[in-house]
User: What shape does this take?
Amino acid sequence: MVPVAALTLREVKHGRELPFALLPATFALHQFLEIFVWAGLDGDVSAGVAEWAMRAYLFIAWPLLPTYVPLAVMLLEPHRARLRVAPFLALGVVVSLYLGYVVLANPVKVIEHAHGLEYDTVVQHPLVWAVLYIIAVIGAPLMSRYRSIVAFGIVNLVGLIVVAVFYTQAFASLWCVFAAISSVLMLVHMIRRRKLPESDRVRGERVLV
Assistant: This one.
């Protein structure tokens, strides 16, 4: 994932592209943090390091992404199309505030499974928050005017369904791996942005064909 993150960031020409281009790097950091969570379970790092890595991992997965993904997508959209994404950003902020409280102010138990880790904590009405999370994180890319971003949303929706059906217990861990792999589509989008005239990359007036 690190080469994809570096190549994606290399394509940035304007500030409004940076949040989106940082997503592969965010996913790469996310997976790196879980290495320390596994190491903590095996006793290879101190309990303090494992706890810090677990909280940081969950902060990215739960409170950060519901706001960050819609915001990153909205900043790339043509000005007149941003209202299509704005409701998902508003919803994401609400989800992020609640899940931030859950992650930072409550105990979390890490349970090891064969294919991933389960993060067990106190979430009131977990199904409701899960649905709202999915709507914010997946809905924003699906509403994009750019085909490559829509493709990213579709791929992650399929991955979410597959993981939810077959690996429910380690859902967060495995879906985030899937999202990291699919971040190559973000690189595809940034490369395709080369087709846009410079003025359109600044103002965001056109849509890629």
